Every structure is written in structure tokens, then in C-alpha cells.
Description:
The structure is a homodimer. Chain A is mainly alpha-helical. Helices cover 84% and strands 0% of the residues of chain A. Chain A has helices at residues 3-27, 34-41, 45-51, 55-76, 85-111, 117-142, 146-166, 169-200. The longest helix of chain A is centred in the last third of the chain and has 32 residues, at 169-200. The N and C termini of chain A lie far apart (67 Å). In chain A, 34% of the residues are buried.
Amino acid sequence: MKERNIEEHNAKKNELMEKCYDYYCENGLYGTGMKELAAHCGVSASNLYHYFKNKDDLIIESTAYCMEKVEDDFMMLAPEYQEDVIRFLNETPEWTAKKHGKKYRMMYQVYTHPKYFEHGKRFFEGVNQRYTEYAKMLEAKIGIPYTTITPLIFIYVRACVHYALFEDKYYLEAQIEVLKKAVRLFIAEEMSKSLQINSQG
Amino acid sequence: MKERNIEEHNAKKNELMEKCYDYYCENGLYGTGMKELAAHCGVSASNLYHYFKNKDDLIIESTAYCMEKVEDDFMMLAPEYQEDVIRFLNETPEWTAKKHGKKYRMMYQVYTHPKYFEHGKRFFEGVNQRYTEYAKMLEAKIGIPYTTITPLIFIYVRACVHYALFEDKYYLEAQIEVLKKAVRLFIAEEMSKSLQINSQG
């Protein structure tokens, strides 16, 4: 393919992945057929096969593509300094539940299915790496070692995603409260450690 | 129905729910039909309809029944005194991932599907209530208020379930470490509070 054709092909493919994923989000993985998808996209079923080897390939590629965009959305709002952490903790759960709830639910349908489970494992390995890098960046700014920040991020994101999946406010709020308390205690502990070092030095 | 007939009906229904759920666990919600299920159970499809109104009813009832048994398994091992907490934190994730991983994955396929989502919400409301009761029981024994213990249980169980779903060791271990640290700091804080009260009194 010529460069321009490749670009056009990719743009059309991205558009199809978003449309298919949205349709799956509304109707569920189980019970949704290729013909329905094609009709929703305004193309023929054979046209879909021009972009995807088969239905499994379409499902896997669309999920990965659309969930990467969700993660980008999420990280765009992530705090980069200490004063911004509470704002982020308070605002993000409602926002992501509303904006991404159906997408998260669809992702779980896909990645917990025996057929696609290995893709789920790889997806979460990638997430771990990216959050660890982000925690390293935060370490200097927040004053807690990144090895402590990383699991706090995991816990927070997991609480947000569970809230997006099942709209469970009690579950979310209890966790946000205990996270705030824990962060306060971790910061106090690090400060008292550095005071001790200074008074000894 | 006579009492004995009701008992027999229920015993057979429970057996069918376990067999169907196990079959779904192996093969996934999407792609598994009623005929296949019936064959796996050694009954006719019309016999299955004697126990379940339709396939949705079979899926909803089997999921609720089998996941209640998983929760019972889990709670049987839950610690009831402070010294037992670390044993529980260390041993449970591997055990439940091995024993219940496929069941959790199937549960997520069901409860994140738009058709069954409302059942998922109700399931997690029940879980919240039961864990809150358990936290109240632990409060006196561990010396942390139940309002702090409850979200710590949520975080721990969520980490275990995510590990059971995606076998993600880094993710699990980082969270277990930070939970242990947080519990230590929470206990120390409660102790210093009660020391202050005593020295004032």
C-alpha cells in the first residue's frame, strides 16, 4: 500500500474499532453478531473482514485501542504535585464512571473470557509498567518512595474502576477516606525519618 | 410439590447450577449454548427448562449460587484475631486464585454484561454489608475502628480478586506490602491516641 493509502486504511480502521466497541458496550459481548456490527458501522460484513482477520481479532484490537484511549484520558487529569492530589482523588471517580463505565464493563467481559484472558494479562502488565513510571515521577514531588506510591495508585485506580463497573458509592468512599488517612500517615512517617537523619547529622 | 419432592428438586437444581457454571467457566459466557450445557449435565435441554425459566435465569441463578459458595470458602479462612492477620494476608491470594480464578472470571463476564449488570450491583451491595459486619466483629480484636477496617478489607479482597482474575503478582505483592505498612501505622496511631487519653485522665 502507498503511504496515503495506509493512512486512510488506519483512519478507517480506528473509526471502525470505536464504532464496534461502542456497539458492544451497549449490547454486550455475548449476543452480538458480526452482521449487526457491520450494519451499525454502515459497512458490509465482508468489508469488516478487510480490516480484521476475524471476529476475535476485531474484539481484541478494538478493546486494546479503546482502552488505551481511556487510560490516556485518565492520565491527562493525573496530579503532578502534592496540592493537586486531593482534587484528583475527589473528582476523578464520578467523572470516569460516567465517561468510561460502559467501556470498563466491556473490557472486563472481554479480558475475563477464556479466549481472551491472555490478552487481559498482557494489558495489565502494561498498566503496571506505566503506573510504576508515573509513581517514580511523583516520588520527588510528594515525598513518599515510589515503591509505596505505586500500590497506592493501584488501589486508587482499582477503586475507581470498580465504581465505574458497579456504581457502588459506599465501597468507593470508604476506600478514598482510608487512602487519604494512609497518605497522611506515610508522609508524616517520611518526615519524621528525615528529621531523625538531620538531627543525627 | 411434597416436601420430599421439593428437596429432591432443589438438590438436582443445585447440582445443575454447579455443573453449568463450571462448564461456563471453562468455555466462557459468549459462545456457549443451552444444548451444549444440557449435554454436559447429562440431561435434555427441555429438562433444563424444568429448573430454569430461560437461559438468562440459569446464568443469573448459577452465578449467584456458585459465588456465594466462593465467598463462604473465603470467609471460612478469614482471621478472627490480630496474630492471624499476617498468615491470612500471605496465604489467601494464591489459594483463592488457584481454587476460584475461573469462577471469578466467569462472574465478571456475567455481571459486567448489560443484561445482568443490575444483578452485579445487587451482588456487590450484599458483599459490602457482609464485610462491614465482619469488620465490626474485628474492631475490638484488632484495635482499629471498623470504619477503617472495612475499606482495608475491600482493598485486600479486591487485590486478591484481581490476582485471581489476571494472575498479576507484581500488582498483588505491592498492595499486600502497602497494606501491612498502613495497618501498622493505623494501629500505632490508635495506640498513641489511647495513651494521650490515659495520660490526660
